């Protein structure tokens, strides 16, 4: 009886040892050895371990599994294109736009500084000076090369032509008023005196005969007024003015501006334009200063529509993007390049307890098998 118990225990211990060691060795052989072992040209069986040996196939199967079952287009649609995600993105963008673009803490110049355009006011002013100078030179060239007739439109020429009789009539009216005034009388008297004195003794004789020239002033005054009031005078002056005006039309406008100094005009014009633009002062204001309703417009109109269109377009292009990404090949490359040592450490770190239980279970099953074998041997 004692021999039976000893034999039974011995076989149980041997069976447990064989079962535990076998399971432990089987677990180790999943990863070990990492590389094939050779005796001269003969490769040792079961080297390398199962996972290192089947790494290529494992990587390929993992890639297929990820693409077909894990990272499918439907998965992305559920995770990233839901209404909830769209609302969160919209809210996030609205908050960021309000906090960054339409804040009063940053001026337009601050944004330009961030973008690397700190000298933008000076640059704009230089551009403005160049534009004004260019336009000014263009105007001078036009005035020098084109006649007044060419510069004036037909409507403007007709208007100016129609103003000539009006101007003549106004001149004659003012002339009549002048010669009838005391100042006009004095002018007529001075003209008579000058005329008589220029005729020498003949003029002196006439002056002695007529007496003081004042007696002639009234007669000359009446004749001058009659001349100014005569219809022929108006017609004559109108004709003269019209002829001279037609001649002037064929001359370049610059002919009448030869003595004008253009450089001071250009400088003052540039200074005036820059003062009116006040670029530095205008850029020293936030965007909301010039666009107070911009934040509400962006929040209620632009951002919702832009986000919705972006989600629609992204969803339409999802399958094409996933195809271009070639996730299967990415996963395969990553798994294939992942060190076996790290993979072993990762798996054993996660399943260490389960592997120990497998080893213990192997020992228990081996012990039970040893006991059964002992019983069989004893009864046979």
Give a topology summary:
Layout (H helix, E strand, L loop, with lengths): L1 H27 L9 E2 L2 E2 L6 H4 L1 H16 L2 H8 L2 H18 L7 H7 L5 H26 L2 H4 L2 H27 L1 H17 L2 H10 L3 H16 L1 H19 L12 H16 L1 H5 L3 H4 L3 H23 L1 H8 L1 H11 L2 H40 L1
Antiparallel strand pairs: 1-2
Summarize the structure.
Helix content is 81%, strand content 1%. With 380 residues, it is an all-alpha fold.
Structure overview:
This protein has 380 residues and is mostly helical. It has 20 helices and two strands. It has a two-stranded antiparallel ribbon with strand order 1-2. β1 (38-39) and β2 form a beta hairpin. α7 (120-145) runs antiparallel to α14 (262-277). The radius of gyration is 55 Å and the shape is rod-shaped.
Average pLDDT across residues? 81
- Helix tally equals 20
Radius of gyration, CA atoms, in whole angstroms: 55 Å
Strand count, sense and barrel status of the largest sheet are: 2 strands, antiparallel
Q: Strand content of the residues, in percent?
A: under 5%
Query: What structural class results from the helix and strand content?
Result: mainly alpha
- In total, the number of strands is 2
Helix/strand order: HEEHHHHHHHHHHHHHHHHHHH
User: Ranges with pLDDT <50 over ≥5 residues?
Assistant: none
What gap, in angstroms, lies between the N and C termini? 15 Å
**Morphology call:** rod-shaped
Across the major sheet, the strand order is: 1-2
Helix content: over 70%
């Amino acid at each position: 009886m004692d021999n039976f118990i000893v034999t039974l225990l011995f076989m149980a211990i041997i069976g447990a040892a064989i079962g535990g060691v076998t399971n432990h060795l089987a677990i180790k052989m999943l990863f070990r050895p990492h590389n094939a072992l050779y005796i001269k040209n003969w490769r040792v069986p079961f080297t390398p371990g199962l996972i290192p040996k089947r790494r290529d196939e494992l990587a390929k199967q993992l890639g297929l599994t990820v693409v077909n079952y894990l990272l499918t287009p439907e998965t992305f649609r559920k995770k990233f294109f839901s209404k909830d995600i769209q609302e969160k993105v919209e809210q996030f963008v609205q908050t960021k736009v309000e906090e960054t673009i339409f804040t009063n803490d940053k001026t337009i110049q601050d944004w330009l500084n961030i973008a690397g355009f700190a000298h933008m006011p000076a640059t704009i002013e230089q551009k403005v000076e160049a534009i004004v100078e260019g336009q000014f030179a263009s105007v001078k060239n036009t005035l020098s090369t084109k006649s007044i007739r060419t510069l004036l439109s037909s409507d403007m020429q007709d208007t100016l032509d129609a103003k000539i009789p009006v101007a003549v009539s106004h001149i004659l009216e003012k002339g009549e008023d002048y010669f009838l005034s005391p100042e006009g009388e004095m002018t007529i008297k001075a003209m008579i005196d000058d005329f008589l004195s220029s005729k020498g003794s003949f003029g002196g004789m006439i002056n002695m005969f007529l007496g003081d020239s004042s007696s002639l002033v009234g007669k000359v005054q009446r004749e001058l007024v009659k001349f100014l009031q005569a219809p022929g005078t108006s017609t004559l002056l109108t004709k003269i003015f019209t002829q001279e005006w037609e001649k002037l039309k064929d001359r370049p406008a610059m002919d009448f501006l030869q003595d004008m100094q253009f450089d001071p005009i250009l400088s003052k014009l540039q200074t005036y334009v820059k003062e009116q633009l006040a670029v530095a002062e205008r850029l020293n204001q936030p965007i909301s200063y010039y666009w107070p309703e911009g934040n509400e417009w962006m929040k209620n109109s632009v951002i919702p529509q832009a986000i919705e269109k972006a989600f629609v377009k992204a969803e339409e292009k999802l399958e094409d993007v996933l195809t271009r990404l070639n996730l299967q090949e990415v996963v395969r490359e990553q798994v294939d390049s992942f060190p076996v040592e790290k993979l072993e450490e990762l798996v054993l770190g996660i399943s260490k307890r389960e592997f120990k239980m497998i080893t213990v279970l192997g020992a228990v099953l081996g012990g039970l098998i040893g006991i059964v074998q002992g019983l069989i041997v004893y009864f046979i």
